[in-house]
Amino acid sequence: MIKHIFTLCISFFISCFVASAQLREVIPLVDGWQFAKGAVPLTELSSMDWETVSVPHCWNAHDATSPDYYRGEAVYRCTFPTSKKIRGKRIFIRFEAVSQEAKVYINGTLLGEHQGAFGAFCFEITPYIKKGNNEIVVMASNAHNDDIAPLAGDFTKFGGIYRPVSLLILPHNCITPLDYASSGVYLTPTSVSDTRAVVDVKVKVDATPAASISLRTTVYAPDGNPLAVVTTDDYTDCEQSREYNSNIIIENPQLWDGLNAPHRYRFFCELLQEGRVVDTLSQYTGLRYYTIDAEKGFFLNGKSYPIRGVNRHQDRPGKGWAISNADHDEDMRLIQEIGANGVRLAHYPQSDYIYTLCDRAGMLVWAEIPFIERATDGSKVFADNLKQQLVEMIRQNYNHPSIFCWGLFNELGKGHPEGLVAELNALAHKEDPTRITVAAANNDGRPENTVPDYLAHNTYPGWYWAGPETMGPSIDWKNDGKGVCISEYGAGASVSHHKQGVTSAPKTDGDFHPEEWQATVHEGNYREITKRDFVWGTFVWNMFDFASATRHEGDAPGINDKGLVTYDRKTPKDAFYFYKANWSRHPVVYITSRRHDRRHEAVTDVKVYSNCQNVTLTVNGVSLPLVDSDHNVYIWKNITLLPGENQISVSAVSAGKTYTDRCVWYYENE
Ligand code: GCU
User: Fold this and answer.
1) Residue 592 within any structural domain of the chain
2) Which one is catalytic: 392, 411, 516, 523?
3) Are residues 194 and 161 both part of a single domain?
4) Is the domain of 473 the same as that of 569?
5) Is 528 close to ligand 1, i.e. is its CB under 6 Å away?
6) Domain co-membership, 53 together with 17
7) Can you tell me the distance from the alpha carbon of 667 to that of 670, in angstroms, rounded to the nearest whole number?
8) Does the Cβ of 518 fall within 6 Å of ligand 1?
9) pLDDT reading at 371 higher than 60
10) What are residue 291's DSSP bridge partners?
11) What are the respective helix, strand and coil percentages of the chain, to the nearest 5?
């Protein structure tokens, strides 16, 4: 292959772009789906009790918090007409995810199957399209299956076509959508420094054998200006499936620099056949480098950048996993508001949209496969399924600069999965030579723990055991000479439960989870974390409450309430503001225990989180002497409330402006 690199003639390429803009089309199949629970042979579909739904759809939207939520089979069907615009084109159907098994039929013919709840999959349907209406039928199931990961896990395993489905109308010779349903374009920044970056561009193409096709890639700088173009000419002995490889050098790159400046470059790929543009596709990536120093922690682009992050599940009340882009946006806004610089998207690959939001926001992302608690020991089918889910995750999300690591497992503790973990580790490195592998463990000394590049720890001092301050010795003990990452830590909290002066954990599986204890755990854990530079990453468990059908604790059944924000995203808990006061660049002044508004004890501490100066507390109009803070926590001890209403207010100053917070506590003198 011959490569030409030259600086661009802007107007020429703009005209090409306009001319080629309609070459591929994505038609989301949203409305008019029919859905029925149960299994039925294809020939007896009419016997089902159909309900009209739109997709994304989740059949556990309303029973997800009940221990006997539906785990079984269901059927979807929809029709779409053949239109003129698809004539002469190739048609594919792409599912972003179906939980967790899908058999897809078109006009009565089986197109294919997919196992795994979190990966996209794509089939070509061109040969099966007929005049008039075409019918798609999806037989789905979220029943437990020993062949499919995950086999366990503390979360509801929702079912349904819960991410979008689209028809892709592509030109005959196209960048393939069939390589594990990825974009077909793989951007690998092979070397990145402050002065120079080299990006390998690999494009997989599906074309008529012997058709002479070349690939032109244009790189656009973060400000949208064209920067460079590379043309990869064709080779003669053309196969149907081909790969075009080139590399592009970017001098003085604008780095993807986390929250500081998440710059992205756009790579615009055009397939050219006899000088004509026949297909186009844009992909974004960012240029960054990172290292982990065993003593000094995480460095992004050469600068110390400890990861202070949160975990996130993908469900919502009343929707299950069928969440909208607006829901993702809201989650990201809250994650940004708290000031986190990283997210562990646990415990499975999440939607392309959330990874894109992370790219744009500058969040460092830990992405992982759903290998949780156990394997089906010795089962090749199970192992193959996990490998397939790993390859899907990597290829589908390859270009996201936010993703810095691939997570291989969470809390394995049974059987002998070490051989399988080693295979997964090798596969991850083969698929992606640039990112590290990690895993989250809660069992010390297990053989699989030494396999990933970095082992991280799920640890709950102050909740499942001991006091919050024991996070310190626990971290020291876990240091394996490579530094430490805490992949999970936290405590449960219900915003309707309160207790002043709480000094120990409540019954963790009990029905009283005071909000105050969660905050105390986070303060104590975090104090220990920040004493140690070698802790390169931490991820709070969890940013949001989430459905876990078998739990029955706190103030709501079927919920894991370790979120910093309630399940409905409406109420950030006190602990949310502890982190906001420590992480956010925006002024924070927040009175804790504000929801404990009916009091039965006159004497109370008042605790305020603030990152401002001159933090002043006023109780019933009387200003109290200033107190010192630790990690932006201010405590006024032994304040006496008056019978009846008490006005609590706090003011503080940042950059010359005064910020205030207030609440009312009612003391009932019995
Ligand atoms: C585990 C696990 C999570 C779980 C959490 C908890 O460590 O990885 O999936 O939800 O602990 O107990 O809340």
Assistant:
1) no
2) 411
3) no
4) yes
5) no
6) no
7) 9
8) no
9) yes
10) 299
11) 20, 40, 40
